[in-house]
Structure formats: C-alpha cells, structure tokens
TrEMBL record:
<keyword id="KW-0456">Lyase</keyword>
<keyword id="KW-0057">Aromatic amino acid biosynthesis</keyword>
<comment type="pathway">
    <text>Amino-acid biosynthesis; L-phenylalanine biosynthesis; phenylpyruvate from prephenate: step 1/1.</text>
</comment>
<keyword id="KW-0584">Phenylalanine biosynthesis</keyword>
<dbReference type="Pfam" id="PF00800">
    <property type="entry name" value="PDT"/>
</dbReference>
<protein>
    <recommendedName>
        <fullName>Prephenate dehydratase</fullName>
        <ecNumber>4.2.1.51</ecNumber>
    </recommendedName>
</protein>
<dbReference type="InterPro" id="IPR001086">
    <property type="entry name" value="Preph_deHydtase"/>
</dbReference>
<keyword id="KW-0028">Amino-acid biosynthesis</keyword>
<dbReference type="InterPro" id="IPR002912">
    <property type="entry name" value="ACT_dom"/>
</dbReference>
<feature type="domain" description="ACT">
    <location>
        <begin position="196"/>
        <end position="273"/>
    </location>
</feature>
<dbReference type="GO" id="GO:0004664">
    <property type="term" value="F:prephenate dehydratase activity"/>
</dbReference>
<feature type="domain" description="Prephenate dehydratase">
    <location>
        <begin position="4"/>
        <end position="179"/>
    </location>
</feature>
<dbReference type="InterPro" id="IPR045865">
    <property type="entry name" value="ACT-like_dom_sf"/>
</dbReference>
<dbReference type="InterPro" id="IPR008242">
    <property type="entry name" value="Chor_mutase/pphenate_deHydtase"/>
</dbReference>
C-alpha cells in the first residue's frame, strides 16, 4: 500500500497537483478542510499534509496563519507551484453559449480579464476543482468553470481556453507537514535552508522593532512576517516568521539570542530545505519541480 499525503480540496485542485508533483506515486487524500488535512496526519491516516500558505497575487491563505502556530505538526518541506487556470465547459458546448463562470473567489479574481472580455457573470464556488465537477454534473452549456488543467480530464470537460490567468507569474507556496520529529541538524541539511517559527513579544515599547533587529544586524533575510491576535486580545502580540538560514548558523544563533531578550515565547515550526524557486526568484517564471 502506497503512503498517503493529505490535502484540502477536491481531486483536480492545485493542492492535488502539488501533491502529485512532490510525492509522485503516493496516494493523495482529499479533505474537506485544512483541519481535516492536519487531522489525517495526526491520526496516522496520512504521513504528510500539503498546505497552501501564500499566493503571489492573493496573499496569505485564510486561516492557515492561525492554524499553523497551534498545530503539533512540523513543516518539513516547501513547494512553489505555478498556478494555471483553464476555462472548462461541457462537451459539445461552445464558449459563446457561456453566461456564468464558477470557481473559487481567488481564481475568479486572478482571471478578471477573461471574465470581462467574455461578459461572464462570476459565481463563487468553494473550490476550483469542485466548480468543474459541478459544471459537469449540471450539464448546462451556459455554465463554465475556471479550474486547473487536471480537472478537465478528471470530470470529462472540454477546454475552451488554457492559461487564462491575468498574471503568468502567479505562484502559490505550499508547506509539507509531518508529525513532530527532531529538527534536522546543519550536517543533515547542508544546503540553503528555511526556518519557520512563532514568537510572542514582551509588552514593552518598540518590542517588535528590537526583537527583529538581530536578524537585520546579522544579515539574515526575512521572507515572511505575519501577526495575529491571541486570546481575543485586540493587539498583534504573536508573530509568525520565515527566515533564510539554519538555527545552527552563527548568524542565526546571534539573532535568536537577541530575539530572546524581547520575547516571552519562541517556538520552531520547522527547519527545511529551501525550494529552488527561492534561488531563482529573479527569473521571469517560477521553477517547476
């Protein structure tokens, strides 16, 4: 029996495609929610979970910034997926017949030019691939879907147009989660690394500025900084951070020593290899893995 990797969404979604790219030959397990994907790993139903965390156009993925700090799972890998959308309809229909386009709200927002040009009415669906399934079930030539290319084959739909996204650089960053395990040492992870962690600042003036100063003075590149409320307080006291480096690097050791002076809690979420996309961030197109 093949090992399993869980994801949120329906078969044919971008998360499903990311699973197939990162773990070919594994069973990809669809889950109704991110919490269910996390639970699949915790319960042993799946060895890993594939979770989208950021999109280059839409920004952070809702709920994930709050779920990650609370989970007992650990980030062990990252993956950058170029996002491509196709316009799909039922067999025998034509694009001229289309009146409504169904998809996830982010997909609709990322394909505005096509929607405007065709004069379609956007209708929000819970999932990109799910909208393709629904269009197939409705069998209505006036309804089309914006979905990943894989969904056309899965649900027996015709492709009216490919690569219809407004921005060809559209990319989603995913993280791969596993059960807690020892953080890999620098010897085990000799190449470029990313460290993800959360911290809570002390209630003193300029605490965040001072807490982050050590990373600047030690030349560490910070690629993500998210704030969120804790315990219903209307104050951004908890922060989630990604930095490029390994905790055993001398520069990181000094930065974390300074961080400890101004925080009441620091917890490592994961230390993992940097995806090649980070090394080619100046390229015009994302690197496909």
């Amino acid at each position: 029996m093949a090992p399993a990797i869980a994801y949120q969404g329906e078969p044919g979604s971008n998360s499903h495609m990311a699973c197939l790219a990162v773990r070919p030959g594994w069973d990809a397990v669809p889950c109704a929610s991110f919490e269910d994907a996390f639970a699949a790993v915790t319960s042993g139903e799946a060895e890993l979970a594939m979770i989208p965390i950021d999109n280059s156009i839409a920004g952070r993925v809702a709920d994930i910034h709050a779920l990650l700090p609370r989970t007992t799972l650990q980030i062990v890998e990252e993956f950058f997926l170029p996002i491509r959308f196709s316009l799909l309809g039922i067999p025998g229909a034509t694009v001229e017949q289309a009146r409504e386009v169904h998809s996830h709200i982010h997909a609709l927002g990322q394909c505005r030019k096509l929607i405007r040009r065709l004069g379609l009415t956007p209708v929000i669906a819970g999932d990109t691939a799910g909208s393709a399934r629904e269009v197939a079930e409705w069998n209505d030539p006036t309804k089309v879907s914006l979905a990943p290319p894989m969904a056309a084959e899965l649900y027996g739909l015709e492709v009216f147009a490919e690569k219809v996204e407004d921005d060809p650089t559209n990319t989603t960053r995913f993280v791969v989660l596993a059960d807690r395990r020892p953080v890999p040492s620098r010897e085990e992870l000799p190449g470029p690394a990313v460290t993800s962690f959360v911290f809570r600042v002390r209630n003193v003036p300029s605490a965040l500025y001072k807490a982050l100063g050590g990373f600047a003075t030690n030349g560490i590149n910070m690629t993500r900084l998210e704030s969120y409320m804790v315990g219903g307080e209307f104050a951004a006291t908890m922060f989630m951070v990604d930095v490029e480096g390994h905790p055993e690097d001398q520069s990181m050791v000094h930065a974390f020593e300074e961080l400890e002076f101004f925080t009441t809690e620091i917890r490592i979420l994961g230390v993992y290899p940097a995806h090649p996309f980070r090394l080619h961030r100046d390229a015009e197109q994302p690197v496909d893995a």
